[in-house]
Design goal:
Layout lengths: L6 E7 L3 E8 L4 E9 L7 E6 L12 E4 L5 H14 L9 E8 L10 E2 L2 H9 L8 H14 L5 E5 L9 H4 L5 H6 L9 H14 L8 E7 L3 E7 L2 E5 L21 H8 L5 H10 L2 H6 L4 H9 L3 H25 L4 E5 H6 L1 H8 L11 H5 L6 E2 L8 E4 L4 H20 L1
Parallel strand pairs: 1-6, 6-8, 9-12, 12-14
Antiparallel strand pairs: 1-2, 2-3, 3-4, 4-5, 7-8, 9-10, 10-11, 13-14
Helix pairs in contact: 1-3, 10-11, 11-13
Length: 414
């Protein structure tokens, strides 16, 4: 890595998709972003947006193409070709590293890690606890290593931020030997978002993260809550998998484990059918047939009872976690809403804290109605606890962690 190398390419590989952003770490600016979807199909689609290329006239000029893209290797080569059109090719000496989102890092990976064969093998061993995510993440890493074997590949783990949870918060109350033999414990997810938002919330309050206790509510199609004390996660709602916790778009969240036994014994459902039910046919979509909060709110406003029930169940679970994490933290300085629903759905924010005055929580209706891409306070000036909207930026967090790791390694070598 030369002193000129200040760019980081962030890759988020799904089973049939590849999201990417190229960032300049001198100021965190985005140079390009895009998505390849339906990989392996005849109708594969690449959407590429140059955001700060050498030709200012092309900034934001989205380019789309639909053509067969056979696999992730072909997808990354297509991405490289689009970047090269903007003078941002992957062969540039200004590219410092490639940062990869990896969903599950288990207990071993509590920090961003330069990928080698041993790291790849360990991520592979974690596939049984992240069967939907880690295989795709591995594919992205292997593809990028083949394309640029000379470049540091850095894995940034969704679970890493939550490894600071105390053992009593991370353990399930089952037989210890069985749990340890099969790596059964609470790991938590959305860690890069919770890390970024908790830190940005402290900045919004004008304090160091070590001085702030914050409840982070990451509310998207997937949703999770975390209790962060002095910059360290002490509890989070997702567990062994992303199924536990809040009501989500298609996931049930918390449920009596005996429901699975009942469905098997009484309804004759197989394990795979129950898995699909709880992960893909539950949550908001299971309750009312929609998982888009905007559509649900439209239906509520029109008097739709199923949509009202779905919204009320969603809010009830959210309020339970706010109350629980207030007890876990003891002192709460801020509650931060983030991600697609958290950042954009004012009715969700209002309902989530309504009636929680005894916890010091309230929103100002006027402030809550304001739409902005900037972090902002939406609670009254005299509130004991700050309620804030803090847009997340997981790609920037991954890029910052990646760049810091390779920069520090270069400094040690020098």
């Amino acid at each position: 890595m030369t002193s000129r190398a200040t760019r980081v390419l962030v890759l988020n590989s799904g089973s049939s998709s590849l999201k990417y952003q190229l960032l300049d770490m001198r100021d965190g600016s985005r140079l390009a972003a895009g998505l390849v979807e339906r990989i392996g199909e005849a109708s594969s689609r690449l959407v590429h947006t140059p955001l700060a290329g050498p030709d200012a006239a092309t900034d934001g000029a989205k380019r789309e193409r639909t053509e067969p893209i056979a696999d992730h290797a072909a997808a990354l080569e297509a991405v490289a070709a689009e970047l090269a059109r903007d003078g941002l090719g992957l062969d540039s000496p200004e590219l410092a590293a490639i940062g990869h989102r990896v969903v599950h890092g288990g207990l071993r990976f509590s920090e961003p890690t330069v990928v080698d064969d041993e790291v790849l093998a360990e991520i592979e061993r974690l596939v049984p606890v992240a069967p939907l995510h880690n295989p795709a993440n591995l594919t992205g890493i292997r593809t990028a290593r083949a394309l640029r074997p000379d470049l540091p590949q850095v894995a940034v783990f969704d679970t890493a931020f939550h490894t600071t949870m105390p053992e009593y918060a991370a353990r399930y109350a089952i037989d210890v030997a069985t749990a340890d033999a099969h790596r059964i414990r609470r790991y938590g997810f959305h860690g890069t978002s919770h890390a970024y938002v908790s830190r940005r919330t402290a900045e919004l309050l004008g304090k160091d993260p070590s001085e702030v206790n914050v409840i982070v509510l990451h509310l998207g199609n997937g949703a999770s809550a975390s209790a962060v004390a002095g910059g360290r996660c002490v509890d989070t709602s997702m567990g062994l998998t992303p199924l536990e916790g809040l009501v989500m778009g298609t996931r049930s969240g918390d449920i009596d484990p005996a429901v699975t036994f009942h469905l098997h014994r009484v309804a004759g459902m197989s394990v795979d059918e129950i898995d699909e039910l709880l992960n893909k046919k539950s949550g908001l979509v299971g309750l009312c047939g929609d998982n888009d909060m905007r559509e649900i709110r439209r239906r509520v406003d029109e008097g739709d009872e199923r949509a009202r029930l779905a919204f009320d169940v969603y809010i009830h679970r959210l309020r339970k976690y706010i109350g629980a994490y207030s007890a876990v933290l003891g002192r709460v300085d801020a509650v931060a809403f983030t991600a697609g629903v958290g950042e954009n759905a004012a009715p969700v924010r209002e309902a989530a804290v309504a009636g929680l005055d005894t916890l010091g929580l309230a929103v100002d209706a006027g402030l809550n109605a304001v739409r902005s891409d900037e972090p902002r306070v939406i609670s009254p000036a005299d509130s004991r606890v700050v309620v804030a909207v803090v847009p997340t930026d997981e790609e920037l967090e991954i890029a910052q962690q990646t760049f810091a790791l390779v920069r520090d390694a270069r400094t040690r070598i020098a």
